[in-house]
């Protein structure tokens, strides 16, 4: 393979990978200089000129002519007077000899190895370009097409044919994709696995919801409305605390849009995830009240040391505060940064009820704590549920629930 064929084939391959000309020339020179070092020990006294467009390569070895008896005659950048005269009869001592080295002088094996090295360098460069591209896109939304669905992940292809990965854990539970579907997600992270960039996407990250708001709500994109915090149970429920520094802008109204027009687009993308947009405030009681919406809070007691809040509600508001599957109270706790315990306000009839703490000798304290987390703080509030409801709400074992009902039931039988 001569120099012209080698360079032209490499240049064509490099262009197909969108490698710019200066980078292409640099790689060619690096590889040829490596060949020179392998054959001549050094490349310091060599001049390499490459014209990738024409496929031209010129390699010149530059040496200074010294006397045959000189002590420097063995230096790599020196040539004896006698040897120089063989190249050009009119050379004189002290002049420089520019000796052209043909590619064939390196041998067939060296040239083949150079070709493989050039291709590998481009592939490595392509990996670096891909890694850097998506490293800069971390936290940004991308769209890609599904091309393979596996058990633990979905493989997608971007517009340039690069493989992206959407793991099962980063998918919304209600997501159902088919080959050829276009998927929106954020770039969650970029890993290197065995020298290959691995681009991980996510649809469950709070950042994904934030970017969707930026796309749908101009005031958020422009910075007129700030998203303070987002908490999510992907596909089920989310709470978004927003704030505006412009008194003329209603941040909640702007995010929801006329008749919900803006937020509906976000909800559809998230498989009908229920999104509560809350006006942020530094007033803790008001913030908690808004976070527990649609429940109406009667009073709140905070313990700063334990970071726990005792929230009191009327009996008919407790289930609203807890929400379906307990999502409302879980998300409210994460949003405000406090563990929230809900308690029912007792009316006159319920004053006959017995606080669960009265049963601490018969029921383990951790079990009582579990019950209280779901708003069950009295014996009658527990007994008003079916055993199935209590098991589902608290995730306690059936045997434990049976024992709770037995102990509490005995109190009222007596």
Concise synopsis of the structure shown:
With 414 residues, the chain is α+β, with helices and mostly antiparallel strands.
Helices and strands, with pairings:
Blueprint: H1 3-16, H2 21-40, E1 46-51, E2 56-66, E3 78-80, H3 81-87, E4 96-100, H4 108-136, E5 141-149, E6 153-157, E7 163-167, E8 182-193, E9 196-202, H5 206-216, H6 218-221, E10 225-233, E11 237-244, H7 251-256, H8 261-269, E12 274-279, H9 284-291, E13 297-303, E14 308-313, H10 315-322, H11 327-336, E15 339-344, H12 365-373, H13 379-383, H14 387-394, H15 398-413
Parallel strand pairs: 2-3, 11-12, 14-15
Antiparallel strand pairs: 1-2, 2-4, 5-6, 5-8, 6-7, 8-9, 10-11, 13-14
Helix pairs in contact: 1-4, 2-4, 5-8, 9-11, 14-15
Written account of the structure:
The chain is an alpha+beta fold and 414 residues long. Among the domains are: 130 residues, N Utilization Substance Protein A, Chain:P, domain 4; 65 residues, OB fold (Dihydrolipoamide Acetyltransferase, E2P); 76 residues, K homology (KH) domain (GMP Synthetase, Chain A, domain 3, 2-Layer Sandwich), CATH 3.30.300. 40% of the residues lie in helices and 25% in strands. The chain has 15 helices and 15 strands. The strands form 4 sheets. It has a 5-stranded antiparallel beta sheet. Strands 1, 2, 3 and 4 form a 4-stranded mixed beta sheet that branches. Strands 10-11-12 form a 3-stranded mixed beta sheet, sandwiched between helices. Helix 1 packs parallel to helix 4, helix 2 packs antiparallel against helix 4 and helix 5 packs antiparallel against helix 8. The longest helix is centred in the N-terminal third of the chain and has 29 residues. The protein is elongated, with a radius of gyration of 37 Å. GO terms for molecular function: DNA-binding transcription factor activity; nucleotide binding; RNA binding. Its main location: cytoplasm. Monomer. Binds directly to the core enzyme of the DNA-dependent RNA polymerase and to nascent RNA. One of its GO terms (biological process) is transcription antitermination.
